[in-house]
Amino acid sequence: MSKLFEDRVFWITGAFGALGAATARRLALAGANVIASSRNVDTQLFADWPHVVPLSVDVADDRSVRSAFAQIEERFGRLDGLVTSTNVAAFGDFLDLTDDDWQRVIDAKLLGSVRPIRAALPRFIAQGHGAIVAISGRGGIAPPPNHFPGSSVNAALDLLVQGLGRRYGPLGVRVNAVAPGPIRSPRFDSMATTQAATEPTRLTALDGPGTPEDVAAAVAYLLSDDARFVTGTRLYVDGGGPPYA
Fold first, then answer.
1. Which residue of 114, 129, 143, 177 lies most exposed, with the fewest beta carbons within 10 A?
2. Pure H helices in 77-203
3. Per-residue pLDDT for 193 more than 80?
4. Strand pairing partners for 133?
5. pLDDT, greater one: 43 or 191
6. For the residues 171-194, what does the mean pLDDT come to?
7. Which domains does the chain have, with CATH numbers?
8. What is the DSSP string of 111-141?
9. Which PANTHER family match (predicted)?
10. Residue 134, beta-bridge partner list
11. Which is more confident, 187 or 73?
12. How far from each other are the two terminal CA atoms of the chain, in whole angstroms?
């Protein structure tokens, strides 16, 4: 892979999940230094990746997020992009889901994206450039009946990205979302067990489900200079959506 991101520095939250880990590897292979953060850090996951730096961060705690950003500033003196990829699962019938179920998703994925963006944004503004990519999801426009908390947060993230892209685009900061559809991962398997069995090839217009690497490729594009004229948008990585209405 070409060194598309030579000497650039990217911060990925939720980097030890399937999508975050695939993105970290993709960016590192392209020459970037990657801060891979998560509340629970697996020191072995990136043991063979010298340009991936694990960092323990709890995105549900603003002090933890700001401390992490300060450490990134001290070590690298720059930050070129941020990817927010945190998530928690809360599946079930709407009437069975509690306030706590909803709050966990809101705090981990919505506020868990707001906090790192808020920490990094002044740096991007000061240097006149920066790219932010939030991982949302296709549920933001087509919510599965067993996934209302996550789908609602996906919709909120997409709206946040649209607003931030317009607000900070004139200052050189691009903000976009990647909305995956069915992607093969532990989370996908968890969702599949809560709904009727469906042949994987019938989940999308293409031969699905996709892979974490498919999502990582989309994120890398939005972080790159190839996407210099793209902001405030949502890029679907969902195999074209369901093939049948």
1. 129
2. 99-105, 111-127, 148-168, 186-192
3. no
4. 83, 176
5. 43
6. 80
7. 9-237 (3.40.50.720)
8. HHHHHHHHHHHHHHHHHT-EEEEEE--GGGT
9. DIHYDROANTICAPSIN 7-DEHYDROGENASE
10. 84, 177
11. 73
12. 39
Residues 201 and 242 sit within 8 Å (Cβ to Cβ): no
Q: Quick check: bond before 209 cis, omega within 30? A: yes
Tokens of 82: 């941020």
Other Cβ atoms closer than 10 A to 142: 14
CA-atom Rg of the chain in angstroms: 17
For residue 236, give both structure tokens. Answer: 């679907």
Provide the residue type at 238 as one letter.
D
Give the three-class secondary structure for 55. Answer: strand
- For residue 159, the 8-state DSSP code is H
Structure tokens at 127: 């240097």
Q: How far is CA 115 from CA 7, 111, 119, 219, 226, in A?
A: 25, 6, 6, 20, 27
For 24-70, what is each residue's pLDDT tens digit?
A: 999 999 999 999 999 988 888 998 899 999 999 999 999 999 999 99
pLDDT in tens, 101-157: 999 999 999 999 999 999 999 999 999 999 999 999 988 888 888 889 999 999 999
- Distance, in Å, from the CA atom of 194 to the CA atom of 153, rounded to the nearest integer, reads 20
Which single residue is written with the structure tokens 């399937």? 18
Distances (CA, A) of 193 to 76, 132, 185, 196: 43, 33, 13, 8
Please check whether residue 13 is in contact with residue 64, taking contact to mean a CB–CB distance below 8 angstroms.
no
Q: Order of strands, edge to edge, in the sheet holding 173-180?
A: 52-56, 33-38, 9-13, 81-84, 130-135, 173-180, 234-237
Give the amino acid at 122: P
Max CA-CA distance within the chain? Answer: 52
